[in-house]
Write a structure and sequence with these properties.
Length: about 675
């Protein structure tokens, strides 16, 4: 399963709804194609179809913790999810946008919806039951189960009471504030709180007509004149938390007029929701925390000190509502996005029983959560030298970590702008060139056999892939080559080589010039010590071959031995014994004829076609053959005058055998000899 994990403030937060989702309007054929997608098959869904077309407004849990209610808009609708089956039980559409709703029973059978058209819709198990209207536009709704009354607060200085048992309106509660933005009901003593538009918090005992008390909560929190946008009682009934429009959260003890702690969200956005959370088995209340949310971020902090524990910042849309599962670490966030975001924090509490598999998944990913440092950047010592910040080593501005340092992002950006003033312009030009190249490729289809970057490595990989494919197909030559390299598995069956060039992880290696492999670099030579020697030896051998040998054509004639075809009879007579005395292949090999498999014959070169067979090379003379065997060059010697060259050959031959020349040739002397009868006879060579 795939889950995104982050660790703000060192606390691991798992996003259980970050996987890929399939739109409802997608055709069946496209949905079947998604089954072949590895990312889609490994997705994790908290609940089936846990999403809306446009956005989610409110999320609530039924009192028996078996169902989840969620409302959305465009179109206005409500969905009910059955946790026993991990799926949606039903959905219902309404005529107007849902502002808020309350679940009236333990299960899903009865609910009341406050809509934007001043109507209150009552729904039963079978569907819509009754619809009534309130005098003013409503902003919040609450339900008092011990009196069976719906309490509707809105843009009026009073709270409307609807008695569900008698089916009629009761006398409204008169408030001092010109309007009420939010309401809260204590589950312990039944105290009803109203968050006023003028920053005043009023509490009512529903058995009495007047308010039990009023408090200017916004002024005491340090935000005079600001509206109160959220209010919540804790489970013990002794503390109440209020949120202001400018992002402050104040926690009050009902026995005091001063806040115990004030938390600033630092965003300047209104507080949309407040929840109290207690860890399981917390008897002393030392681990009690508050989950407060504004439009941008959801913060979890200590109720006594206000110290931040962790935070959740959705990547899509503004936050509308937060649902915290009781006594667990599961949070569901309704945003201005189609998918309802789900987050699991193992250190905050265990997973609920209906999704206990989350704990097993997070344990497997325990080692994979990276540390997040939003304000710092990791740099090495070489990077510090390039930036001119190496003189700061040992100071508080650099924090040593592993093989480098952590530096503040502001300091890093300032130093980089000073050392590379034209870096942005260079980056801009590269982006423009890349866009132009993409547009050019879209107009003209270009077939590229090898990439521009790391072409040699790409050719090597393509050759390995082709060789492995041939061996897998049963080619004897390819199998023999793999055996020679030792790349054949023990079972004798060649496995296909993965196509690295097609892998997205290594795509930039053959596209981005920053990943060019420099074969002349010291690091490359250290990893491949024989690469330079092989290239140098191959170049030296080709040079000596061209110097000491000449290529023989396919008909056996040398490259410089073209006959002129003269008309003289003596020449034709001399050519006959020359052809007869032409040495055989064995003699050629003995006298210095060489064969090269990588050459091109003269006839083939003249026709512009490569030779199918091996190319034949013949040594120019015996001296060239000896020099080639010794891996020596005679270029300097051949440039000398004839006299100096002969003298050097004689001196190199030595005085022991003055008739021997360098290269194995010998001098022949002829002395005429007289016969006894005075007739000149044949001479004798010696």
């Amino acid at each position: 399963m795939s889950m995104k994990v982050s660790a703000p403030d060192g606390v691991k937060v798992y996003n259980v709804s970050s996987s890929k989702n399939v739109p409802q309007w997608l055709s069946e054929s496209k949905k079947r194609e998604q089954k072949k997608n590895e990312e889609f098959r490994r997705r994790l869904e908290l609940l089936q179809d846990f999403r809306f077309n446009a956005a989610c407004q409110r999320i609530k849990i039924s009192p028996d913790q078996q169902y989840i209610f969620a409302s959305g808009y465009h179109p206005p609708q409500v969905k009910v999810y059955d946790l026993a089956n991990f799926s949606m039980k039903f959905e219902r559409h309404l005529d107007s946008e849902i502002v808020d709703f309350q679940i009236l029973t333990e299960d899903y059978s009865k609910a009341a919806f406050l809509c934007a058209d001043r109507s209150v819709c009552l729904h039963a198990r079978f569907g819509s039951y009754y619809k009534l209207r309130v005098p003013r536009f409503g902003r919040d709704i609450a339900y008092a189960p011990f009196m069976a009354e719906l309490l509707v607060a809105g843009s009026a200085p009073e709270v409307y009471r609807i008695n569900m048992e008698e089916g009629r309106f009761m006398t409204p509660l008169a408030c001092k504030s010109p309007a009420v933005n939010a309401t809260g009901l204590s589950p312990v003593h039944g105290l009803f709180a109203c968050a006023g538009e003028d920053g005043v918090l009023e509490c009512f005992d529903l058995r009495m007509k007047s308010a039990a008390g009023a408090l200017d909560a916004a002024t005491n929190c340090g935000a005079p004149g600001q509206e109160l946008t959220a209010v919540r009682f804790d489970d013990a009934g002794l503390q109440v938390a209020v949120g202001t429009r400018n992002g402050l959260v104040g926690v009050y003890d009902l026995r005091s007029q001063r806040p115990v702690v004030v938390k600033d969200h630092m965003y300047g956005s209104k507080i949309v929701d407040i929840k109290f959370h207690a860890s399981p088995g917390d008897a002393g209340g030392n681990s009690r925390r508050i989950v407060s949310s504004d439009r941008h971020i959801c913060k979890i902090w200590d109720i006594n000190t206000g110290e931040g524990y962790t935070s959740i910042e959705p990547t899509e849309g503004d936050i509308n509502d937060v649902c915290l599962w009781p006594n667990s670490g599961l949070l569901m966030v309704g945003c201005d996005a189609s998918v309802i975001q789900g987050y699991f924090i193992p250190s905050l509490g265990p997973a609920p029983k209906w999704c206990s598999h989350l704990e097993g998944l997070t344990e497997e990913m325990e080692e994979a959560a990276p540390s997040v440092y939003d304000d710092y950047r990791f740099v090495t010592k070489n990077d510090l030298v390039k930036l001119g910040l190496d003189h700061l080593m040992g100071t508080s501005l650099l924090r040593a970590y592993m093989h480098g340092f952590f530096v503040d992002n502001r300091l890093y950006n300032k130093a980089k702008s000073l050392t590379e003033p034209f870096a942005y312009e260079t980056y801009r030009q590269q982006r423009i060139a890349k866009k132009l190249e993409e547009e050019r490729e879209s107009r003209i289809s270009m077939v590229k056999k090898l990439p521009k970057v790391n072409a040699r490595m790409a050719a090597k990989l393509m050759a390995q892939e082709a060789e492995a494919a041939a061996a897998a197909a049963g080619d004897p030559a390819a199998i023999a080559a793999l055996k020679k390299k030792g790349a054949l598995p023990q079972n004798g069956e060649a496995a296909p080589v993965p196509n690295i060039m097609a892998d997205k992880r290594f795509g930039a290696m053959f596209e981005d010039a920053d990943f060019v492999v420099d074969e002349n670099a010291e690091e490359y030579r250290a990893l491949h010590p024989n690469a330079g020697h092989r290239a140098k030896a191959k170049t030296e051998e080709e040079r000596l071959l061209q110097e000491h040998f000449e290529q023989v054509s396919e008909d056996g004639q040398g490259s410089s031995g073209d006959s002129s075809g003269g008309d003289d009879d003596d020449d034709s007579m001399d050519e006959a014994p020359a052809r007869a005395e032409r040495p055989s292949k064995k003699q050629h090999k003995k006298d210095g004829l060489g064969v090269s498999n990588g050459g091109v014959s003269k006839a083939a070169a003249q026709q512009g076609k490569p030779s199918k067979g091996p190319a034949m090379y013949a040594a120019k003379d015996a001296a060239s053959l000896q020099a080639f065997k010794k891996r020596e060059s005679r270029a300097d010697t051949l440039e000398l005058p004839l006299a100096e060259r002969v003298g050097r050959d004689r001196s190199a031959a030595g005085s022991s055998n003055p008739g021997t020349r360098l290269g194995g040739s010998r001098e022949i002397k002829f002395v005429p000899h007289m016969a006894p009868d005075g007739v000149r006879g044949r001479g004798r060579g010696r």
